[in-house]
Amino acid sequence: CASCVPILFGIFVPHLKGRVATLAAVSALSTYVLLYAWARVATSEGVNLVDVVQGWGPVAALFDTGMPQLGLLNPAVPATYGVLVSVLVALPSAVAGFVAPRATEPVER
């Protein structure tokens, strides 16, 4: 799942650099592992994550506060956050490649 977005970007955005795709995959995997581990540790320590994020102001809207432990104990939920982070990492480079001309192409006058 962590490499899904970089693979799709590689297919549909061929000018995307390999480093950007790698960074997107690593950030997705890191997000998944950290969020899932955070929920597991919080559960074992008896901490309710809903109470924790409700003090975060507008950032709390990013989480499902109606679910126990924000739903993060369901592996699909942190994986979804990982995919979203991966898109956020790769998207600026992909858009910049479409907007700015590439240096390898000759400039038409």
Task: Please describe what this structure looks like.
- There is one protein chain.
- With 109 residues, the chain is an all-alpha fold.
- It is built from 4 helices and no strands.
- Helix 1 (4-12) runs antiparallel to helix 2 and helix 2 runs antiparallel to helix 4.
- The longest helix has 28 residues, at 18-45.
- The chain starts with a helix and ends in a 10-residue tail after the last helix.
- The model has no long low-confidence stretch (mean pLDDT 85).
Helix-strand blueprint:
Blueprint: H1 4-12, H2 18-45, H3 49-53, H4 76-99
How many E-type strands?
0
Work out the radius of gyration.
18 Å
Q: H/E series, N to C?
A: HHHH
Fraction of residues in β-strands: under 5%
Task: List descriptors.
109 residues
In a nutshell, what does this entry contain?
With 109 residues, the chain is mainly alpha-helical.
